[in-house]
Amino acid sequence: MSALVPPGSTDTVFSVDTLLKYMGDDDKARAVVTKIVRDACAPAMTPLLQAHQAIAEGRLADAGRIFHALRGSVGSLGARRLVTASLALELALAEQRMADIPALFAAVEDAYRQVLDQAGDWLAAHASDRGRP
Known about the structure:
Structural class: mainly alpha
Number of helices: 6
Shape: elongated
Helix content: 55-70%
Domain HPt: 29-126
Keywords: Phosphoprotein, Two-component regulatory system
GO molecular function: protein kinase activity
Protein name: Hpt domain-containing protein
Organism: Rugamonas fusca
């Protein structure tokens, strides 16, 4: 667990329960949410690789935009832990706090990997609901 998320935190890694509930929690809602989860996770680690490159090249504003977009796309999946970590990193990038960026980047990476893992598990568990992966 990262320093940004204290032990016993209620920040979720991944949960689409609320999204499903708002959409009616029926077959149609599950199909739509499945597509949302797939689309949000499709880029896999590409955004982090792009942000890492941008930071290495001194393009901190570009890196901040990448994390902002990632937070927006994955935030709807109940990824509160990632949102918290990403916000802290975006602020450090905007303030050019170079000493803080590596640890904050690592926290975002850890949170994002957890989202991808749990989303993958969710997709695998719900693939049988519709008879396809």
